[in-house]
Amino acid sequence: MQLMVTDKTRRNLLKAALLGMAAPVLPFGCASNRALREPGLIGCSIHGRDDFQVTIADEFGQPIYRLPLPARGHGVAIAPQLGHAAAFARRPGEFLMVFDYTKGTLVQTIKASNRRHFYGHGVYSNDGHWLYATEGERATSRGIIGVYDARNQYQKVDELTGFGIGPHEVIIMQDGTLVVGVGGVHTDGRTPLNLSTMEPSLTYLSPEGELLDQVGLADHHLSIRHLAHDGNKTVLCGQQYRGKPEAYPSLLAMHQRGQPMIPLHAEPEQWARFNHYIASIAATNDWILATSPRGNCYGIWSKHSGELVELLPLPDASGVVTNGREFRVSSGSGKVIFQSQPGGKRQINSNIPWDNHWSAIH
Protein backbone atom coordinates (compact mmCIF):
# COMPACT_ATOMS: atom_id res chain seq x y z
CA MET A 1 0.00 0.00 0.00
CA GLN A 2 1.47 3.38 -1.03
CA LEU A 3 0.69 6.41 1.12
CA MET A 4 0.03 9.53 -0.96
CA VAL A 5 0.74 12.92 0.58
CA THR A 6 -2.02 15.18 -0.75
CA ASP A 7 -2.53 18.91 -0.32
CA LYS A 8 -5.29 18.08 2.16
CA THR A 9 -2.85 15.91 4.12
CA ARG A 10 -0.33 18.75 4.19
CA ARG A 11 -2.99 21.14 5.47
CA ASN A 12 -3.98 18.66 8.19
CA LEU A 13 -0.36 18.25 9.26
CA LEU A 14 0.11 22.02 9.43
CA LYS A 15 -3.10 22.36 11.43
CA ALA A 16 -1.92 19.64 13.83
CA ALA A 17 1.37 21.45 14.38
CA LEU A 18 -0.36 24.76 15.03
CA LEU A 19 -2.62 23.08 17.58
CA GLY A 20 0.37 21.66 19.43
CA MET A 21 -0.20 18.12 18.16
CA ALA A 22 2.65 16.20 16.61
CA ALA A 23 2.32 15.28 12.96
CA PRO A 24 2.80 11.55 12.36
CA VAL A 25 5.90 10.85 10.30
CA LEU A 26 4.88 9.49 6.90
CA PRO A 27 7.71 7.88 4.88
CA PHE A 28 7.31 4.35 6.26
CA GLY A 29 4.55 2.94 4.06
CA CYS A 30 0.99 2.53 5.25
CA ALA A 31 -0.29 3.98 8.48
CA SER A 32 -0.96 0.56 9.97
CA ASN A 33 2.77 -0.20 9.84
CA ARG A 34 3.53 3.06 11.62
CA ALA A 35 0.96 2.27 14.30
CA LEU A 36 2.72 -1.02 15.08
CA ARG A 37 5.92 0.77 16.07
CA GLU A 38 6.23 1.62 19.75
CA PRO A 39 8.01 4.73 21.06
CA GLY A 40 11.45 3.81 22.39
CA LEU A 41 13.65 6.91 22.11
CA ILE A 42 13.11 10.65 22.41
CA GLY A 43 15.48 13.47 21.54
CA CYS A 44 15.55 17.06 20.39
CA SER A 45 16.43 17.73 16.77
CA ILE A 46 17.35 20.64 14.50
CA HIS A 47 15.70 20.88 11.09
CA GLY A 48 16.84 24.30 9.92
CA ARG A 49 17.24 27.83 11.11
CA ASP A 50 14.61 28.46 13.80
CA ASP A 51 13.09 25.02 13.13
CA PHE A 52 13.54 23.05 16.33
CA GLN A 53 11.61 19.90 17.21
CA VAL A 54 11.41 17.08 19.70
CA THR A 55 11.26 13.71 17.94
CA ILE A 56 9.67 10.55 19.31
CA ALA A 57 11.23 7.51 17.66
CA ASP A 58 11.09 3.75 17.88
CA GLU A 59 13.89 1.78 19.53
CA PHE A 60 15.95 1.98 16.34
CA GLY A 61 15.77 5.76 16.03
CA GLN A 62 13.15 5.80 13.28
CA PRO A 63 10.76 8.73 13.87
CA ILE A 64 7.11 8.25 14.82
CA TYR A 65 6.00 11.74 15.95
CA ARG A 66 7.52 15.20 15.87
CA LEU A 67 6.47 18.23 17.90
CA PRO A 68 7.64 21.80 17.30
CA LEU A 69 9.65 23.47 20.07
CA PRO A 70 9.57 27.21 20.85
CA ALA A 71 13.38 27.33 20.58
CA ARG A 72 16.33 24.94 20.53
CA GLY A 73 15.93 22.03 22.94
CA HIS A 74 18.52 20.03 24.84
CA GLY A 75 17.67 17.20 27.25
CA VAL A 76 14.50 15.14 27.69
CA ALA A 77 13.06 13.55 30.85
CA ILE A 78 10.62 10.63 30.66
CA ALA A 79 7.90 9.33 33.01
CA PRO A 80 6.65 5.98 31.67
CA GLN A 81 4.01 5.81 34.44
CA LEU A 82 2.29 8.87 32.93
CA GLY A 83 3.23 8.47 29.28
CA HIS A 84 4.74 11.95 29.64
CA ALA A 85 8.08 13.43 28.66
CA ALA A 86 9.53 16.90 29.19
CA ALA A 87 11.87 18.64 26.75
CA PHE A 88 14.09 21.36 28.21
CA ALA A 89 15.31 24.45 26.40
CA ARG A 90 19.04 24.79 25.77
CA ARG A 91 20.67 27.00 28.38
CA PRO A 92 19.90 29.74 29.25
CA GLY A 93 16.48 28.30 28.49
CA GLU A 94 13.11 29.98 28.65
CA PHE A 95 10.85 26.91 28.70
CA LEU A 96 10.23 23.29 29.45
CA MET A 97 7.63 21.54 27.35
CA VAL A 98 5.64 18.53 28.59
CA PHE A 99 4.04 16.18 26.05
CA ASP A 100 2.34 12.79 25.82
CA TYR A 101 4.80 10.65 23.89
CA THR A 102 2.28 7.84 23.34
CA LYS A 103 0.03 10.15 21.27
CA GLY A 104 2.39 12.90 20.16
CA THR A 105 0.33 15.62 21.84
CA LEU A 106 1.28 18.68 23.84
CA VAL A 107 0.40 18.64 27.56
CA GLN A 108 1.67 22.07 28.60
CA THR A 109 4.56 24.49 28.30
CA ILE A 110 6.13 26.04 31.42
CA LYS A 111 7.98 29.31 31.03
CA ALA A 112 10.87 30.41 33.21
CA SER A 113 10.21 33.42 35.43
CA ASN A 114 11.85 36.73 34.62
CA ARG A 115 14.79 36.17 36.99
CA ARG A 116 15.32 32.47 36.23
CA HIS A 117 16.35 30.24 33.39
CA PHE A 118 16.56 26.52 32.71
CA TYR A 119 19.91 24.79 32.20
CA GLY A 120 18.68 22.20 29.71
CA HIS A 121 18.11 19.07 31.78
CA GLY A 122 15.72 17.43 34.21
CA VAL A 123 14.57 14.07 35.49
CA TYR A 124 11.37 12.54 36.88
CA SER A 125 11.26 10.81 40.25
CA ASN A 126 11.26 7.03 40.01
CA ASP A 127 7.49 6.91 40.60
CA GLY A 128 6.80 9.66 38.05
CA HIS A 129 5.25 11.99 40.64
CA TRP A 130 7.86 14.77 40.60
CA LEU A 131 9.78 16.48 37.84
CA TYR A 132 13.16 17.93 38.86
CA ALA A 133 14.67 20.63 36.61
CA THR A 134 18.07 22.32 36.75
CA GLU A 135 17.56 26.08 36.97
CA GLY A 136 19.58 29.19 37.67
CA GLU A 137 19.16 32.71 38.96
CA ARG A 138 20.05 35.04 36.10
CA ALA A 139 21.95 37.64 38.12
CA THR A 140 24.13 35.18 40.07
CA SER A 141 23.85 31.73 38.40
CA ARG A 142 22.83 30.39 41.82
CA GLY A 143 21.97 26.75 41.31
CA ILE A 144 18.38 25.59 41.82
CA ILE A 145 16.59 22.30 41.37
CA GLY A 146 12.98 23.18 40.63
CA VAL A 147 10.45 20.58 41.84
CA TYR A 148 7.22 20.25 39.85
CA ASP A 149 4.18 18.14 40.74
CA ALA A 150 3.53 16.06 37.62
CA ARG A 151 0.20 14.84 38.99
CA ASN A 152 -1.07 18.35 39.67
CA GLN A 153 -0.66 20.16 36.35
CA TYR A 154 3.08 20.53 36.94
CA GLN A 155 2.71 23.12 39.64
CA LYS A 156 6.07 24.18 41.06
CA VAL A 157 6.10 23.10 44.69
CA ASP A 158 9.69 23.48 45.87
CA GLU A 159 13.21 24.67 45.08
CA LEU A 160 16.36 22.88 46.22
CA THR A 161 19.44 25.09 46.42
CA GLY A 162 22.63 25.78 48.38
CA PHE A 163 24.88 23.40 46.41
CA GLY A 164 26.75 25.76 44.05
CA ILE A 165 26.32 27.70 40.82
CA GLY A 166 25.66 26.63 37.26
CA PRO A 167 24.06 23.16 37.59
CA HIS A 168 23.64 21.41 34.28
CA GLU A 169 22.40 17.82 34.31
CA VAL A 170 20.50 16.06 37.11
CA ILE A 171 19.90 12.29 37.22
CA ILE A 172 18.23 10.03 39.77
CA MET A 173 19.58 6.86 41.37
CA GLN A 174 17.59 3.74 42.18
CA ASP A 175 17.17 4.85 45.80
CA GLY A 176 15.79 8.25 44.79
CA THR A 177 19.00 10.20 45.40
CA LEU A 178 19.47 13.12 43.01
CA VAL A 179 22.90 13.58 41.43
CA VAL A 180 23.73 17.00 39.99
CA GLY A 181 26.55 17.96 37.66
CA VAL A 182 27.40 21.41 39.02
CA GLY A 183 29.36 23.29 36.37
CA GLY A 184 30.55 26.01 38.73
CA VAL A 185 30.46 28.70 36.03
CA HIS A 186 28.71 32.06 36.44
CA THR A 187 27.46 33.22 33.05
CA ASP A 188 25.86 36.19 31.37
CA GLY A 189 23.76 34.40 28.79
CA ARG A 190 26.32 31.86 27.51
CA THR A 191 29.36 34.04 28.30
CA PRO A 192 31.44 32.76 31.28
CA LEU A 193 32.40 35.38 33.88
CA ASN A 194 34.37 33.50 36.56
CA LEU A 195 36.70 31.00 34.91
CA SER A 196 39.55 31.80 37.29
CA THR A 197 37.43 31.05 40.38
CA MET A 198 34.91 28.46 39.15
CA GLU A 199 34.04 25.65 41.59
CA PRO A 200 32.48 22.65 39.85
CA SER A 201 31.30 19.59 41.77
CA LEU A 202 29.46 16.32 41.55
CA THR A 203 26.70 16.75 44.13
CA TYR A 204 24.34 14.24 45.74
CA LEU A 205 21.04 15.49 47.19
CA SER A 206 18.15 13.82 48.96
CA PRO A 207 14.73 14.40 47.34
CA GLU A 208 14.18 17.02 50.06
CA GLY A 209 17.40 18.87 49.16
CA GLU A 210 19.74 17.62 51.90
CA LEU A 211 23.37 17.66 50.76
CA LEU A 212 24.58 14.05 51.00
CA ASP A 213 27.96 14.21 49.26
CA GLN A 214 29.93 16.63 47.12
CA VAL A 215 33.21 15.96 45.30
CA GLY A 216 35.33 17.70 42.70
CA LEU A 217 38.23 17.03 40.37
CA ALA A 218 41.86 18.06 40.81
CA ASP A 219 41.60 20.71 38.06
CA HIS A 220 38.89 23.27 38.88
CA HIS A 221 38.68 24.20 35.19
CA LEU A 222 36.94 20.88 34.51
CA SER A 223 33.30 21.96 34.55
CA ILE A 224 31.18 18.91 35.44
CA ARG A 225 28.21 18.83 33.09
CA HIS A 226 26.78 15.57 31.76
CA LEU A 227 25.94 12.50 33.81
CA ALA A 228 24.84 8.88 33.61
CA HIS A 229 24.77 5.91 35.95
CA ASP A 230 25.32 2.23 35.34
CA GLY A 231 22.02 1.07 36.83
CA ASN A 232 23.73 0.37 40.14
CA LYS A 233 25.88 2.69 42.29
CA THR A 234 28.41 4.09 39.81
CA VAL A 235 27.94 7.59 38.40
CA LEU A 236 29.75 8.68 35.24
CA CYS A 237 30.42 12.37 34.70
CA GLY A 238 31.57 14.15 31.56
CA GLN A 239 33.34 17.48 31.65
CA GLN A 240 33.83 20.61 29.62
CA TYR A 241 37.39 21.91 30.04
CA ARG A 242 37.56 25.69 30.51
CA GLY A 243 41.33 26.03 31.06
CA LYS A 244 44.34 26.45 28.75
CA PRO A 245 43.46 25.70 25.11
CA GLU A 246 46.65 23.67 24.63
CA ALA A 247 45.95 21.38 27.61
CA TYR A 248 44.00 18.14 27.18
CA PRO A 249 43.09 16.59 30.54
CA SER A 250 40.76 13.64 31.12
CA LEU A 251 37.15 14.59 30.39
CA LEU A 252 35.47 11.57 32.02
CA ALA A 253 35.33 10.23 35.56
CA MET A 254 33.59 7.54 37.60
CA HIS A 255 32.35 7.96 41.15
CA GLN A 256 30.56 6.19 43.98
CA ARG A 257 29.30 8.03 47.06
CA GLY A 258 31.86 8.35 49.82
CA GLN A 259 34.79 7.64 47.51
CA PRO A 260 37.13 9.84 45.43
CA MET A 261 36.66 10.53 41.75
CA ILE A 262 38.35 8.10 39.34
CA PRO A 263 39.34 9.82 36.05
CA LEU A 264 39.23 7.64 32.93
CA HIS A 265 42.36 7.34 30.83
CA ALA A 266 43.37 8.24 27.28
CA GLU A 267 46.43 9.80 25.66
CA PRO A 268 46.46 13.63 25.43
CA GLU A 269 46.22 13.46 21.63
CA GLN A 270 43.15 11.25 22.03
CA TRP A 271 41.53 13.65 24.48
CA ALA A 272 42.30 16.39 21.94
CA ARG A 273 39.91 14.69 19.53
CA PHE A 274 37.04 15.46 21.94
CA ASN A 275 37.71 19.19 21.66
CA HIS A 276 37.39 19.81 25.42
CA TYR A 277 33.75 18.62 25.60
CA ILE A 278 31.73 15.51 26.45
CA ALA A 279 28.05 15.61 25.47
CA SER A 280 26.42 12.28 26.33
CA ILE A 281 27.43 9.20 28.33
CA ALA A 282 26.05 5.71 28.84
CA ALA A 283 27.38 2.58 30.55
CA THR A 284 26.83 -1.16 30.50
CA ASN A 285 28.37 -3.68 32.88
CA ASP A 286 31.63 -3.70 30.91
CA TRP A 287 31.84 -0.57 28.79
CA ILE A 288 31.40 3.21 28.92
CA LEU A 289 30.62 5.22 25.78
CA ALA A 290 30.88 9.02 25.53
CA THR A 291 30.21 11.33 22.59
CA SER A 292 31.54 14.70 21.49
CA PRO A 293 29.66 16.67 18.82
CA ARG A 294 32.44 19.27 18.92
CA GLY A 295 35.01 16.58 18.25
CA ASN A 296 32.86 14.63 15.75
CA CYS A 297 33.71 11.41 17.55
CA TYR A 298 32.86 8.95 20.29
CA GLY A 299 34.98 6.74 22.51
CA ILE A 300 34.52 3.45 24.32
CA TRP A 301 36.27 2.81 27.65
CA SER A 302 36.65 -0.37 29.64
CA LYS A 303 34.66 0.09 32.82
CA HIS A 304 37.04 -2.28 34.63
CA SER A 305 40.40 -0.78 33.62
CA GLY A 306 39.29 2.80 32.91
CA GLU A 307 41.27 2.76 29.65
CA LEU A 308 40.10 4.04 26.27
CA VAL A 309 39.71 1.02 24.01
CA GLU A 310 38.26 2.50 20.83
CA LEU A 311 37.94 6.00 19.37
CA LEU A 312 35.72 6.36 16.32
CA PRO A 313 34.69 9.24 14.04
CA LEU A 314 31.03 10.24 13.84
CA PRO A 315 29.96 13.60 12.41
CA ASP A 316 28.16 15.61 15.11
CA ALA A 317 28.11 12.62 17.51
CA SER A 318 25.22 13.32 19.86
CA GLY A 319 23.11 11.15 22.17
CA VAL A 320 23.80 7.69 23.54
CA VAL A 321 21.56 5.27 25.44
CA THR A 322 21.74 1.58 26.26
CA ASN A 323 19.36 -1.20 25.27
CA GLY A 324 20.45 -4.19 27.31
CA ARG A 325 24.14 -4.58 26.51
CA GLU A 326 23.96 -2.56 23.31
CA PHE A 327 24.74 1.13 22.87
CA ARG A 328 22.64 3.21 20.51
CA VAL A 329 24.28 6.45 19.37
CA SER A 330 22.65 9.34 17.49
CA SER A 331 24.20 12.08 15.40
CA GLY A 332 23.36 15.40 13.84
CA SER A 333 24.03 13.80 10.47
CA GLY A 334 21.11 11.41 11.01
CA LYS A 335 23.24 8.31 11.42
CA VAL A 336 22.34 5.88 14.21
CA ILE A 337 25.07 3.55 15.47
CA PHE A 338 24.44 0.19 17.18
CA GLN A 339 27.42 -1.22 19.07
CA SER A 340 27.75 -3.68 21.96
CA GLN A 341 31.53 -3.61 22.39
CA PRO A 342 34.65 -2.29 20.69
CA GLY A 343 35.45 -3.70 17.30
CA GLY A 344 32.01 -4.08 15.77
CA LYS A 345 29.23 -1.71 14.86
CA ARG A 346 26.35 -1.33 12.47
CA GLN A 347 24.54 1.79 11.41
CA ILE A 348 21.35 3.01 9.77
CA ASN A 349 20.15 6.42 8.68
CA SER A 350 17.20 7.88 10.60
CA ASN A 351 17.01 11.04 8.44
CA ILE A 352 16.66 13.03 11.68
CA PRO A 353 19.33 15.65 12.55
CA TRP A 354 19.53 14.72 16.25
CA ASP A 355 20.80 17.23 18.80
CA ASN A 356 23.04 16.54 21.83
CA HIS A 357 21.01 13.98 23.79
CA TRP A 358 18.76 10.95 23.59
CA SER A 359 16.53 9.51 26.33
CA ALA A 360 15.29 5.91 26.31
CA ILE A 361 11.80 4.82 27.32
CA HIS A 362 12.10 1.93 29.77
Automatic annotation (TrEMBL):
It comes from the Bacteria. Coiled coil: none annotated. InterPro entries: Quino_amine_DH_bsu (IPR011044), UCP028101 (IPR008311), WD40/YVTN_repeat-like_dom_sf (IPR015943). This is DUF1513 domain-containing protein. It comes from Vibrio olivae. The lineage of its organism: Bacteria, Pseudomonadati, Pseudomonadota, Gammaproteobacteria, Vibrionales.
